[in-house]
Design brief:
The complex is a heterodimer of chains A (about 140) and B (about 350). By secondary structure, chain A is an alpha+beta fold. Chain A is built from four helices and five strands; from the N terminus they run αααβββαββ. Chain A has a single domain, classed as OB fold (Dihydrolipoamide Acetyltransferase, E2P). Helices cover about 20% and strands about 35% of the residues of chain A. In chain A, strands 1-2-3-5-4 form a five-stranded mixed β-barrel. In chain A, strand 1 and strand 2 form a beta hairpin. Classes of the chains: A alpha+beta (about 140), B alpha+beta (about 350).
Amino acid sequence: MRLKGDDRMLRKMPAALVLTAALAMSVPLWAHHAFQAEFDDKKPVHLVGKVTKMEWINPHAWIHIDVTESDGKVTSWMVECGSPNIMLRRGFTKESLEFGSEIVVEGYRAKNGSNRANGSSVTFKDGRRLFVGGSNPDIPAEFRQ
Amino acid sequence: MTRRFFAVLIPIALAMPLAAQTKATWTPPKTPWGDPDLQGQWPAVANIPMQRPASFGTRAFLTDEELTQREQQAQRQQESDNEAFAKNGQSVTINPPSYWQERQKPNRQASLVVDPPNGRIPPMTPEGQKFVQSLRGGLGPGQHFPDKVDSWEDFDIYSRCITRGLVSSMLPTIYNFGNQIVQAPGFVVIRNEMIHEARVIPLDGRPHVGSGIRSYMGDPRGHWEGNTLVVETINFNDQTGAGGGFFSDAAKVTERFTRVAQDELSYDLTIDDPKTWTRSWTIHMPYRLDPSYNIYEYACHEGNYMMLDSLEAARQLEKEGKSTRVDRGAAGGPPPGNQNQ
């Protein structure tokens, strides 16, 4: 999101006002999953890979990609997405992601050492997001998901 | 005399369902067999906090200024959710991106809790508090964001894809706000998209099942009071509840569904559980008809890799002699607590 005038205003809002606004938000704001139990915040991953499979499963969909490492070795990874229900409602269809598409993933590796990662940011190489949506909006921390 | 009269009258007026105070007489359509027709998709569209800040007192609605402020914030969030290009140098956190969520619109209603009049959940009884503390061998209830993963029971039953319980299942959460009402002669079925609940409610006056038969969603019986569907539910097990408390064997939940306009369903839910809370309390939620809303299956357990990954990770760390404590703070996670609203 581009920085707009009202965002700069928001940063100057008195802390008490921001807190009031935070209290006004509806009940649980966090995702279904305990991310800190599943993923390791000390193991960020940067993956560039080609899509081999899409699992439309609940509670979260998973993209499978093959990552070719510098020595030519190919490793398969799974990248977590949102709920299939949300993705469908946002207009994500089977045409949105073709097999063989190259995507860039910024995320964190699963703590159990498996080749699974949460896809905090999933983009095509030209910078378009795989899904609509911003991962780091210019809004107060209280509102960040 | 006058003062005493108003002292009695005002709390009664405040306790009335909000819709009853604002909507006059609109006659809902009837089903072919003559019941008021409540059928349709009623997703939650309103973003209303469970409780209101203590500073609000008995003020049940936002001011114009407060509402505008929240609408502006929601607009900013909407723009962010719809971002199509990645921003250079954008930082990535371990938390999921914002587009994983669905959002509702700000609402003038200051809190879901409308009774007590201060919009706050009443205090728990000592017995209710004691039960909560007794769970997990004295650690309290399983949590949505546990600080240890020794067992699946360290997670709350929502994370375990079991249920959110009757109260929470009727309230919106992070996504899947769908609710559908389907009627047949003698029955009403209420579907909730999140954790795919489907409550089949008999309306034929049959008695409740025996007190020994207990379940997560309880045993519901419904009847009509004019155009209002009243559903009374008892026989909860002790694993669900609301507001951090858990239902005792004395719990009764009474729901009132009234279609107050073609596209608006007034919903009130009252919790009576004298063993758990010091008084009864009531939630009000306005649902909006949206025939275009599709409820998709949410077979939550089928791919719940989070559970497997988290348990495996903790066991692996144990083998390596490392701490298995989950540090939420470093990643900006939320404070401890379960999601039992």
